[in-house]
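## Example pair
The file below holds two records. Each record gives the amino-acid sequence first, followed by its structure token line.
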Amino acid sequence: MSGDQWVTCFQDSAEVILQATANDLGALKEAQDEQRLRVVASEVKVLDTEDYCTG
């Protein structure tokens, strides 16, 4: 799979998903550490909704 994916979520959810704070990600961006930003984002996994749905 290739290409870009844009995701929007609130701060609390984003910190759980990315396992990093907004300040951590901002510091990576300021340091122009694009490779590290890609690694952080590539570790996000698809949610298996069947595990979270109740019938």
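Second record, same layout:
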Amino acid sequence: MYIILAKISVSSVDKTANLKKKYKADLVLKNKNSFYVLEEIIDAEFEEINEGDNEEINEGDKNNE
């Protein structure tokens, strides 16, 4: 999945490599008279930590001291 950082007219661009560098982009696509500068969205999994879990983590930290 990607997010569009910029849409730029083809006539105002010399090299797409310059666009990638300027926007720190992962990908540049061309559609008719426009370049689309894109950044990849990293899909991360996460687990919610409940209050009780925090106490266990804190106790573990005390045991390591």
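Notes on the second record: Residues 4 and 38 are 5 Å apart (CA to CA). Residues 51-64 form the longest helix (14 residues).
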